[in-house]
Amino acid sequence: MHRVYPFVVSLGLSLAPLAAHATAPAAPAPEVKAPTIQFKQVNARVGYQEELDNAVDMRLALDLRASDMDKPMSVAMSVTSSSRHTVTVLAAKGKVISKVKMAFGDVGEVAEEQGKVQRKASPISRKTYLAEWKKDRVVITNAAGKPVPKEEADEVAKHLPELGKPDRMEAAFPKNPLAVGATLDGFSDAFAKQIVDEQGDNTRVTQARARLVEVRQDPRGAVGIFDVAMTVLRQEINAPFLLTIPLQGQMSVLAEGIQLLELTLSGPVKVELTDDAVEQGFEARGEGAMRLRLTGRKADAAR
Fold first, then answer.
1. pTM (2 decimals)?
2. Which of 248, 265, 95, 86 is closest to 170 using CA atoms?
């Protein structure tokens, strides 16, 4: 793979030729321009397939104390969730997809708490579904077009692409070439909103940003490499503490079609008591970490 690095810096001076025992003035240094990349939205195609793998690891150790507690409440847990599925476009017009097939591989999680390990398979694991935009809403059925339990439909909905409207993540990419060093402000806002929409009202995202740091060339075309950072704030209902997770990582995006190839984010999990918990005399000490990895790959069968 040939890489075009974002900046080329030459350290050192070249001596100009001597004439009449004097040093000729040095030639002005040529201006170095940052590499650019042009992202291009393309029309959705019936038959287009994309394989997606998603993995999230999180661990947390917490001691919670209060004056009226005989002993501190200690929690030591870790959760690893993973999913694999293939999306096939079944109906589309222009850049708007209206119907897809979702074929899931293994979907589930492994949780360990206080030394006890539990494995839980998702109800959508190893199943296939159809999802279609109908009458201003998404309708999810099994592969035969029959209704599915709400539990399954809700899980499938978490993995769906945008249906019945333009993809807001793709639309956030600029129409003009993007230079190394520039930020994707619109994308950062859209990405933060998507996380909040998926996780619910108990999650907030702040300080989200994505900055282009490199342009690479590979057989698929130009690929933009972005440094990504955000802070996720999460508070479970009735919990006396707030989790703050500052995440950093990288994202690679294929310019043609604006296809996400890989996203990796990781960071520490910080525990902070709510104001009410402090007033009630709680004390907390905890630490943890979170890691996320998402990869996408074309498996094109367009017709």
1. 0.79
2. 95
